[in-house]
Amino acid sequence: MILTVLALLGMQQGIADRLSGRVPPDVGAVVESLGTDAAARGLPIDPLIQKAIEGSAKRVPPERVIAAVRLVVMQLDTAAAALRAGGMISDTLAIAAGAFAINAGMDAHDITNLVLRGGGQTVVNVRLELNVAGTLVAMGVPSSEASNLVSASLQSDSPATKLLSLPSRVQGEVARGATPAQAAAGLARAAAAQARRGPPPGHPQPPPHPPAPPHP
Amino acid sequence: MRAETEADGDVVRAVLAGDRERYAQLVERYRDRYARYAARMLGSTDAAEDAVQDAFVRAYDQLAQCQDPNKFVGWFFLILRNRCFAERRRNRTQAPLEAADQVAAADRADGGAETAERRRALQHALLELTPDQREVFVLKHVEGLSYGEIAERLSTSVPSLKMRMHRAYDRLREQLRDHE
Amino acid sequence: MSEYDFHPLVKQLLDGDITIADLPAELRAEGEEALRLLAAVDRSPVALPAVPQRVMRALTRTPQRSLRWLLAPALALAAALVLWLGGGRSHGPIAAPGAVVTVHFVLSAPDARAVSVAGTFNQWDARATPLVRTGANGMWTATLELPPGQHQYAFVVDGVRWVPDPTAPAVDDGYGRRNSVLTL
User: Fold this and answer.
1) Which of A52, A206, C30, C71 has an alpha carbon within 20 to 30 A of B124's alpha carbon?
2) Which chains touch A (3 or more CB pairs under 8 A)?
3) What pTM was computed for the model?
4) 3-state SS track over chain A
5) Chain C closest CA to A111's CA: distance in Å?
6) Contact residues, chain C, for A114 at CB < 8 Å
7) What is the Cβ-side half-sphere exposure of residue B71, based on CA atoms within 13 angstroms?
């Protein structure tokens, strides 16, 4: 994605406006600069802005806020590289989700594998895959298991609903005594088996926009 | 011929509203107002030019914080003053020699080398004072302000200014005697 | 008083409060010396013709400065456009545009005087979303409509203590604490 000069200037003013009044000016200046550079590389800037605002709201010293924002930039760069290695080019929403997953503890190559396995399957938002995978890793599921479980769930007939339900289902299995790794592996096996069998007879075609699950 | 039809406050407000080019009007208007003060505080015209330029840029950046746009020049003076004091702290060990050249050129007509030398010696001695002492001396004896006017500009009292000044007199005398 | 100090009367002379004629004879010489000192003051005017051009050039040199003043109007739109220009295999959000999800936030905090929730959905503003004490068991609740996507949040107890949601997955917040994760 090539940003025109005007778009870059717009980016800078957009960053300044969002930070104004919410972070100290010295922090704002550094974040503006980091954000503009990041945007020029095709990275999303929302994660940087959020992290800066969060740090200021939590009364964190300026140098620590800036360090945290720099870390976010690093995670975004890593995520972008992992996506590119999987054949995906510059989707800022997916990059942000990838950075979240990396921050949660996911390995970059598991992200790449997830993207690679997603090709040719049912059309699903990569962002959702990465958000769910990251959430699973945050719950203690090992990175590769999380990647496998998400990929296996893509093969169901309503992948979005399936994906969004994964965290609570893992939580349910853990409550019954499984480790997060065991829970994820078990659910992945069940998903793969279901995919081989195909949808049960009599099941209606799922709506194109499935209702979102209630908060667990 | 410079038409000064617009009040400072109006120009400041226009700049704050987004018309950056109008700031040049204020800079033109006041570029020399405190140039001599800066030159005597810092010891050379070159240093004064840097300080005045920096102060105008700083004033632009902080223009939204100017409490009374109609009193821009007084507010600008305080910014320049801070800049001069900061400069002096940075260049504590330097003894600028430019004063001699500039002064010598101006004085060749009236009294020649001796007057030029005395001027250079006094400027050198002034730089040995503390910034506070130098400032009160410059404002009264170079700029020609009264103690009352200085007290108002610096938000201080006449007695404390006189105490500063009298110490300055003694230190200047000491410096000049050493050089005779 | 050192031998270098001017006599107080001579200082009054220097201040312009008296004239040299007012000095006693023994101070006349010192008075002349003082007046010679004043005569050496350089009062020649100083002109700085290059300043306006240098100032205006300095104002344009730093990108932020000029941007803030000149380009204020149409920029938010450009920023939004850029964010959406991402290509690749993104297929848009799962839910219909504009769809929101009702989320119930619950925290058990019997000893708290005030509880709020702060996160990516409200600019981490600890005052924006207070929870309400519900029932007699020290439960605090709030209900929000949130867009689909990934959200991070934490509870703020008594305005100062940041507490992650014990029932939700947590990630490192980069500041020594944990944030709770909500994926919709």
Assistant:
1) C30
2) C
3) 0.51
4) CCCCHHHHHHHHHHHHHHHCCCCCHHHHHHHHHHHHHHHHCCCCCHHHHHHHHHHHHCCCCHHHHHHHHHHHHHHHHHHHHHHHHCCCCCCHHHHHHHHHHHHHCCCHHHHHHHHHHHCCCCCCCHHHHHHHHHHHHHCCCCHHHHHHHHHHHCCCCCHHHHHHHHHHHHHHHHHCCCCHHHHHHHHHHHHHHHHHHCCCCCCCCCCCCCCCCCCC
5) 15
6) none
7) 9
CA distance C52 to chain A (A): 26
For residue A3 the two structure tokens come to 């940003």
- Cβ distance of B118 and C34 shorter than 8 Å: no
Which chain B residues are within 8 Å of C69, Cβ to Cβ?
Answer: 18, 20
Q: Inspect the interface and report whether the beta carbons of B176 and C51 lie closer than 8 Å.
A: no
Query: Is A138 an 8 Å CB contact of chain C?
Result: yes
Q: How far does the CA of residue B144 sit from the closest CA of chain C (Å)?
A: 9
CB contact under 8 A, A90 and C172: no
Number of A:C CB contacts under 8 A?
Answer: 166
For A106-148, what is each residue's pLDDT tens digit? 989 999 988 888 764 333 478 889 999 999 999 989 998 999 9
pLDDT tens-digit map of A13-30: 788 888 988 999 999 999
Rounded Cα gap, residues C30 and A23, in angstroms: 61
Residues in chain A: 216
What six digits make up the tokens of C59? 């104002």
* Interface membership of A73 toward C (CB under 8 Å): no
For C54-109, what is each residue's pLDDT tens digit?
999 888 765 444 323 333 333 333 332 222 222 212 223 334 445 788 888 999 89
Distance between CA atoms of residues C120 and C183, nearest Å: 12
> DSSP class of residue C57?
H
Residue of C100, C150, C182 to mutate, interface with A, max A Cβ within 10 Å? C150
All residues at 6 or more sequence positions from A127 whose CB lies less than 8 Å from its CB, including other chains: A91, A93, A94, A96, A97, C90, C93, C149
Residues from chain C contacting residue A88 (CB–CB below 8 Å): 88-89
Cβ(A83)–Cβ(A115) below 8 Å: yes
Distance from CA of C114 to the nearest CA of A (A): 17
Q: Bridge-partner residues for C163, per DSSP? A: C155
- Would the CB atoms of C91 and A134 count as touching at under 8 Å? no
Pairing outcome for strands C115-119 and C132-134: unpaired
* Nearest residue on chain C to B178, alpha-carbon basis: C4
- Asked if this assembly's ipTM is beyond 0.90, the reply is no
Query: Which SS3 state, helix, strand or coil, does residue B23 take?
Result: helix
CB A13 within 8 A of CB C71: yes
Residue B169 forms contact with C (CB below 8 Å) = yes
- Of A110, A132, A189, nearest in space to A155 by CA: A189
Alpha helices (H) along chain B: 8-16, 23-30, 35-42, 45-61, 72-90, 98-107, 112-127, 131-137, 147-154, 158-178
